[in-house]
Amino acid sequence: MSHPYDFSSMTALICFEAAARNTSFKNAAREMNVTPAAISHQIKALETDLGCGLFLRHHRGVELTEKGAFLFLAIQRGFEAISDAVTQIRDRPETVDVTIGTTTAFSALWLTPKITAFWKIHPAITVSQIISDVPGMTARCDLSVHYGSAQESGVEYRELFQDRIVALGTPCFAQEYGISSLEDLHKAPLIHSSGKETGWTSWDDWFAALDMPAPRRRRLHVNNYMIALQAAQEDVGAVLGWDGLVGKLMEDGRLVKLVPESIPSPVAFSLKILPRASSKARLFADWLVASS
Description:
Layout: H1 10-22, H2 25-32, H3 36-50, E1 55-58, E2 61-64, H4 66-91, E3 98-102, H5 104-121, E4 127-131, E5 143-147, E6 156-161, E7 164-169, H6 171-176, H7 182-187, E8 190-193, H8 203-209, E9 219-222, H9 225-233, E10 239-242, H10 243-251, E11 256-264, E12 269-273, H11 279-291
Helix pairs in contact: 1-2, 1-3, 1-4, 2-3
């Protein structure tokens, strides 16, 4: 495949530019943290590729030939243009007013629709999400969402909501396994979500809160809550649902409560406001809490 530019080795051109600017292989090597022999090797390869000499080598240094000076001038112009472009990009990054960190599930099920609604009211404020199910992803954020609020000194937490945890499945699944009571559910296939979302209530916790033993029937384990919900919608098994998160799935009838019983979530979903949060980030935080 042909290239749009007729370039020699970029490494060789960079070495040549440093040597020409310093009029010394030794000083160029020191600048690039390589040996003088490495600089000499690259320039010899460049001269071979171009079919001409670029330097006159003297005992105490080097001097550009006419063709070497011509190439040096062209490279300098090119490097200066690249340098100017890089400087402008660094000085004028894309403007993001608010950055919020959250998990995949919380983003898809709750936060993204909230951001969309916020933009309709405050179109001039840009909100960016950093989505990760790995703990500790909030270093570059103004705000972050957490299940529970492990209090940190000097960090502000605001409660978003504390919902109830219900057993969910499709109407087809409920009919297939004849689920109408806790005893029926206890015998049915269950989808267990585990892994990075540590601290979330498990099926064992849920049944224990209702004075029932841990289930021992067929189970499916996944490490992502969104996958667990998708599997439940495909009649694979029952899944636990935080009604504040999965309300839309329930409203649409894609998942239904399998039994009347539910338990309160032991902790709330909380918004962490980092010290770096700007006034716009705090405006968004206030709106998010008020709209919860």
